Amino acid sequence: MSVDWLELEKVATNWVYEAGHKIKKTLAGPIDIESKSNPDDLVTEVDRAIEAFFYEKIQEAFPEHYFLGEEGISDEEPSLDGTVWIIDPIDGTMNFIHQKQNFAISVAVYHNKVGMIGLIYDVMRDELFHAHRGKGAFLNGAELPPVKERPLHESVIGLNARWIVEQTNPYRNPLKALVRDVRSIRSYGSAALEMAYVASDRLDGYLSVQLSPWDYAAGMIILNEVGCVASNFQGDPLSLTDSGTLFASKPHLHKEIISIYIGEEY
């Protein structure tokens, strides 16, 4: 069955805005918080409710599609053949809990492992970064221009400072060297937003030592439409099933940082 991608994008966008409205309503009351893999890996009932919202919508409208979400609402093994939705209901849960801002809904739609639709919605700023494969990338409907390259020493990089102080991080020393050589670093606490910021030229690059597919699936699609590159630290394609390192940036900067700083196996 052929997919009307334009119509699917419209439907997905409406769902994202509806989900954002639901999240805003929850901020007025208390939020139940739990830890997952460690005390800093947080989840709330809002994360689960928003993921369930998307899962139910997709099951009703597109029952033949597959679903992969961070909170495991669907217990079926997702297939990357056919059409699969990859969703992070709240990317930046710690920010959602502590700041009530700097978090995003991330929705990606892949078809036979090819990214077709990417949506990253900054709920509190009402900024929707969106892309349709081959049609360009946009911010609230305004097309994003191709990104501008900057030399390394003028670049601002998104990087969590924890990665350069943790003794067990094998990339600690290369990342420390990189931090010394760039203009500055920033950390927003949401991988989806930081990838969107690279695409919109608010950052020149973004690195993380450990991310999952739902963190970057939508960002990859948006970055591709403005000529940026997303890979692991060795420059290999990102997996849609396994976690790992991530480096997203403008193409020349991407090549330079991998070759000089992070591309070796540690």
UniProtKB/TrEMBL annotation:
<keyword id="KW-0479">Metal-binding</keyword>
<keyword id="KW-0460">Magnesium</keyword>
<feature type="binding site">
    <location>
        <position position="88"/>
    </location>
    <ligand>
        <name>Mg(2+) 1</name>
    </ligand>
</feature>
<dbReference type="InterPro" id="IPR020583">
    <property type="entry name" value="Inositol_monoP_metal-BS"/>
</dbReference>
<dbReference type="Pfam" id="PF00459">
    <property type="entry name" value="Inositol_P"/>
</dbReference>
<feature type="binding site">
    <location>
        <position position="91"/>
    </location>
    <ligand>
        <name>Mg(2+) 1</name>
    </ligand>
</feature>
<dbReference type="GO" id="GO:0007165">
    <property type="term" value="P:signal transduction"/>
</dbReference>
<feature type="binding site">
    <location>
        <position position="90"/>
    </location>
    <ligand>
        <name>Mg(2+) 2</name>
    </ligand>
</feature>
<keyword id="KW-0378">Hydrolase</keyword>
<dbReference type="GO" id="GO:0006020">
    <property type="term" value="P:inositol metabolic process"/>
</dbReference>
<dbReference type="GO" id="GO:0046872">
    <property type="term" value="F:metal ion binding"/>
</dbReference>
<feature type="binding site">
    <location>
        <position position="70"/>
    </location>
    <ligand>
        <name>Mg(2+) 1</name>
    </ligand>
</feature>
<feature type="binding site">
    <location>
        <position position="215"/>
    </location>
    <ligand>
        <name>Mg(2+) 1</name>
    </ligand>
</feature>
<dbReference type="GO" id="GO:0008934">
    <property type="term" value="F:inositol monophosphate 1-phosphatase activity"/>
</dbReference>
<protein>
    <submittedName>
        <fullName>Inositol monophosphatase</fullName>
    </submittedName>
</protein>
<dbReference type="InterPro" id="IPR000760">
    <property type="entry name" value="Inositol_monophosphatase-like"/>
</dbReference>
